[in-house]
Design brief:
zinc-finger, 8-stranded antiparallel β-sheet, 27% helix, single chain, 12 helices, DNA Polymerase III, Chain A, domain 2, 25 strands, alpha+beta, disordered N terminus, 4 domains
Length: 440
């Protein structure tokens, strides 16, 4: 597991002004990238508690590590709080919109915030008339009422979070809004949901939603009903629930979905992996793009642009950089392996995180890509027309090549998943061999 250790600059403590909560820092030029009040303190407190709830949840299987420290990003005129569940199958994000911030315009920066038990108790006590002040940076995050203290701690950021960031932006970038209902209808729907980890499907029904056992045109995948639990606390403050997903048809397999509550000042979203046992860290949605020989150059161009304009859509990125759509996707995929790119389904734009990671670790964070490179280094790939042979550990596999790209493989892994979890290592090796370039 690859980790980055963040050290807090000082201990969190209770002061006369409120709770001075230390963070692990932000960008060097602007150590505080936001300092101001929340215009709707109670909804922000509830939203931050929901993000922290997902971070400590284990919806599928228990893991050895835990992180209760959401990643916080200042992005032009909003603040974003993000986390993954312990099983990496749920990605939570709260975006505090411009109308929710009363302070200087946020600078661009990213940090980890120490959300421990004393802070959770403080947030739980924030009422509608209580002020909530945030100073995100190395100095403090002020909560107006608190009767305890918060202790400084170091935060390991697991490699699974980096892989998760990369996969989530790739999976959600193609999604469209499928249904929008009132928060009251959403509360009724959530109240009637059966408990369990089965993969169900949701379709519009009048002013609300209903469940169906099979996918139909216009349906939305709901894998594991308990994974929507973190939305419940904000329902009474929200106006609408919008659900995003890819287009499906009868016979479609499970897919990811985004469930987003909206208030006048913030959006809280939960992105669910296609099945409860599948973590985003292993989905493989970006592997084909990472195998592109254009990825490194495209990533450099996009990174320079996002440093100046932290939110842009794909067309704007292509126009501003002179890259093709495929090159933009490759560059975004590589930046995603360093956690430096996210995607906002509500705005249909990419946003930039300031992370202390480079893109050189793409192979290490993606074992299938590393395995493909090892096959190439061993001379195990032979391409002949529209069929390639790859000598693997258990025999020789055949990979079909259609229009210069691998389209299938005879290995057992591909036979089981059929592309639902990205290409196998044999296909990746063939893709690289066809272009005659191994990614750096």
């Amino acid at each position: 597991m690859s980790v980055a250790t963040y050290a807090y600059s000082g201990p969190s403590a209770l002061t006369a002004e409120g709770l001075a909560l230390q963070t692990s820092g932000g960008c060097g030029t602007h150590p505080r990238f936001f300092d101001g009040f929340m215009t709707t303190p109670q909804t922000v407190a509830i939203g931050l508690l929901a993000v922290a709830e997902v971070a400590r949840a284990r919806y599928h299987q228990r893991v050895d590590w835990a992180s209760l420290d959401p990643v916080v990003t200042g992005s032009e005129d909003m603040l974003r709080f993000e986390s993954f569940s312990g099983c990496c199958g749920v990605y939570a994000r709260m975006d505090v919109l411009p109308s929710g911030l009363d302070g200087e315009r946020p600078e661009h920066g990213t940090t980890n915030v120490d959300v421990n038990v004393p802070l959770q108790l403080a947030l739980a006590r924030v009422g509608g008339l209580d002020p909530l002040h945030l100073a995100v940076g190395p100095q403090d995050l002020t909560v107006s009422t608190m009767d305890g203290s918060v202790v400084e701690r170091k935060v390991p950021l697991p490699g699974r979070w980096l892989r998760g960031f990369a996969q989530v932006h790739a999976v959600t970038a193609g999604m469209e809004p499928r249904v929008r209902i009132t928060a009251a209808a959403a509360a009724e729907f959530l109240r009637r949901l059966p408990k369990g980890r089965d993969t169900l499907w949701v379709v519009p029904a009048g002013q609300g939603l209903r469940l169906t056992a099979r996918p139909v045109a216009g349906a939305i995948c709901l894998a594991g009903t308990d994974r929507l639990g973190a939305l419940r606390g904000l329902l009474r403050h929200a106006g609408n629930l919008t659900v995003y997903g890819p287009a499906v048809r009868p016979g479609s397999g499970p897919v990811a979905s985004v469930w987003e509550l909206e208030t006048p000042t913030l959006r809280l979203s939960l992105t669910l992996s296609p099945e409860p046992y599948r973590g985003f860290s292993g989905e493989g949605a970006v592997l084909s793009a990472l195998a592109s020989d254009d990825a490194a150059d495209a990533a450099d161009r996009i990174s320079d642009l996002l440093a100046l304009a932290p939110t842009l859509d794909a067309d704007a990125l292509a126009t501003a950089t002179g890259l093709t759509g495929a090159q933009v996707r490759a560059g975004l995929a590589l930046l995603g392996t360093a956690g430096r790119v996210g995607y906002d389904v509500a705005e249909a734009t990419y946003f930039h995180r300031v992370m202390p990671f480079g893109t050189a670790a793409a192979d290490k964070l993606n074992p299938r890509l590393a395995g493909a490179r090892a096959l190439l280094d061993a001379g195990a790939v032979t391409v002949s027309g529209d069929v390639a042979s790859v000598r693997g550990t258990e025999g020789v596999y055949q990979v079909r090549v259609v229009d210069g790209a691998p389209a299938g493989c005879t290995c057992q892994w591909w036979g089981k998943h059929r592309g639902d979890r990205g290409p196998c290592r044999h296909q990746l090796a063939v893709r690289i061999a066809v272009t005659s370039v191994v990614p750096a």
